[in-house]
Structures are given as structure tokens and as C-alpha cells.
Prior knowledge:
Blueprint: H1 2-11, H2 14-32, H3 41-65, H4 70-73, H5 86-111, H6 116-137, H7 147-166, H8 174-197, H9 199-202, H10 209-213, H11 215-238, H12 251-258, H13 261-266, H14 269-292
Helix pairs in contact: 2-3, 2-7, 3-5, 3-6, 6-7, 7-8, 8-11, 8-14, 12-14
Amino acid sequence: MGVQYSALLELMRPKNLVLAAATVPLGAYFGTLVDHQTMDSLTVGLHALAVVCFMGAGNAMNDLKDAVIDIDAHPHRPLPSGRITTAAAQKFTVMLWVLSVVCHAGGVMSSGLTDAKDLLGVVGIYLLAVVLMITYDHGPATKNKGLPGNMVISLLVGAVVLYGAASLGGLFTPLPWYIFGVVFFTNLARELVKDCMDMDSDVGSRTTLPMVHGVEKVRALAYIMVMGALVCLYLPFWRGPFEFGQLVLQIPAILMLITLNGPLYQGNDVLVAGRIRGAMLVGLIGFVAAGVL
């Protein structure tokens, strides 16, 4: 039984959930930074749990959908390895969805938001994320359509920042949207590079940009997305709320991103994907440091 619980946890992909859980309070922090609003820990905590359960359910749905493909592509995963049954995974997925909805509703009720615009923002982001997640694996199955699937995943990752900001009524301040841009473009670049890495294993199950246009063009497109992320990284220091001199705090992230052209040209996709994720984390830390200072 202990092995099954471990396999169910693995089905959620806990490493990815750690970043998601941390991004919600970060989004709330960025959304309340200008107004110096005090963060409600209960509200933010419930919304963070809603996101963790939501993404865990999405990851489990993905594994259920790809169970046959993963027999060859990822035989160590819980379902193809036989450590859990399909029925157990399906029940676990339903439980995660229910917990996510309950935590979301609890977060909205505890927030004390009364403005219709603020309520529409936090509920609308959640509902849109549900639609994007379901259509990613099921009809129209954007996961199998290359760039649309890449964009859906990137929107979902970036939306966590906006969801955190919206949880306390800070959705309509500029800073969360700048940071959303950084997260969206860096994640989209990473998704494109991952498609280059997985091109051989994706044959027969997905139609990705590298298959249609070749890895060289897709890697060039990934670098353009990186440049888009750098523009968004710069905006809060040019337009506010941060001072321009505080841009120095983002030098590590800027260097990690701007120097990717060499590894991309060499086709070192594993290095690039790892460095992009690292730059995203360092960039978020830089924004927090700028807010504190």
C-alpha cells in the first residue's frame, strides 16, 4: 500500500508542484506590492492548494492519456510500470479535481473580495485554466498540435502568477502582468526546446514544430521567445514600480538567457532547457529582491 501511495504522489509530479505552490504567494505579493496591502495567509494558502491539486490532476490526466505511449517512452512512470492501476489513477484524479475546486471556493470566500471586477478576475482565471487543461489532453487535444499545445502549457504556467495576484484583488496592477510575460515567454521557449529533444519519441503521437519546420528554425524561434522574456523583465524597471538602478538585481537572469544563443546553435537542448528554468527562478528572486529593497 505504501508503494501505491508513493506512485500516486509521483503521478502528480511533485517537483513541478513545488514551483507552482511558491508562485501563488509570489503573485499575491507582486499584486499587492504597490498598494502595500497585507497578504491574507489563509486566502493565499487555499489558492496555492487549489493550484497544487489542479496541476496534480492535470499531470495525472496526462499520464492516463499517454499510458500506452509511455510503455516505450517512459516505462518507469507509475502506470506503465504497473505500480498503480488505471482505476486507482482515475479515482485519484477525480479526488484532486474536487479538492482543487473546494480550495478555490474557500479561497474566494475567505478573501473578502466584494468588487465584481476582482471576483470575476480570480474566478475567470480558474475557469479558463480548467478549460485549457481539459482541452490540452482531450478534445481538441492541443497537446498533439505542436505550437498550440506549447502555448497552452505556457499560459497555464504564467496564469499562476496572475491567479495569485487576483486572489487578493491585485490582478489589475501592471507588475503581475509584466512577470506573467517573463514566465510565459521563458516557458514557451523551453517547451519549444523540449519538442526538439523529444522529436523522435513524439513521432506517431504528436505533430510538433520541429517535425514540420526542422530543429534549427525552432531553436531560433525559441531564442526569439527568450528575447521577449527579456523585454518583459526590463519593463518593471523602466515603467515602474521598481527603480531603474535595481535592474542590476536581474543581471544573473539576463546573462543566463542572453547567452543561450550558443548552446541553441550547437543543439545542446538539455542544457538550454535547464538553463531557461534556472533563469526563470533567478528572475523571480530578482523581482522579490527589488520589491524588498
